[in-house]
Each structure stands twice: as C-alpha cells, then as structure tokens.
Write a structure and sequence with these properties.
Blueprint lengths: L7 H17 L3 E7 L4 E5 L1 E3 L2 E3 L1 H11 L5 E8 L6 H8 L5 E5 L5 E5 L1
Parallel strand pairs: 5-6
Antiparallel strand pairs: 1-2, 1-5, 3-4, 6-7
Organism: Sphaerisporangium dianthi
Protein name: Cytidine deaminase
Amino acid sequence: MTDTNLDPEDSKIITLARAARARNGTVQGAAVRDETGRTYTATNVDLPSLRLSAVQVAVAMAASSGAVSLEAAALVSDEEEPEDEDMAVIQDLGDAILFFAAPDGSVKGRYR
C-alpha cells in the first residue's frame, strides 16, 4: 500500500527501495533519483569492518556514477525516523526530499 498522493516517480523510488530490502532480506532498503532521472537502489551493509546505511550506499553509488545532485530519495525501514547521518549524506548532493516509508510502502514522513 503506497501513498496515492505521490508523484509517480516518487512512488517508483519507494517501490524500488521496498524491492531491494525484500530481495536481500535486510533491515533497510533505499533508492535515490539523480538530476537526470537515473535511479540507484541499495540496502544497508552490515559487515564486521564496514557498516553503512542503505541511504549512504545509494548516495555513494549515485555520486560514483557522476551524479551532481539528487531530486529525491526513499528509505524503507521499520525504524521510527531516519538517522541524522542519512539526512546529511542526502544534503551533500543538494536539497532532495526523503520519503521515509514502512515496509508496506506507506509513507511515514517526508524530510528535507
């Protein structure tokens, strides 16, 4: 169930984030859309020597692919609020909105 008031492109990144989370069986899934409309999906990384949130991985993928700004981001998680670190990394590439969603796709909040 997704928010019916969303732009179709924003609904798409929430769906992509949900799919990445479900496919990998992780606690977080994220997707970001860059200034050209390209999307990047990721899940959190939890290795003994490396811990990254799904948003951090998705933004790193966008940046390493040449993105200079983000239009939007989505994070799917059971958590109550996005972490400050996730908001900071999104702001590193501009002033994109973050759609924070539950695993069922319902939007819990929109953050800038």
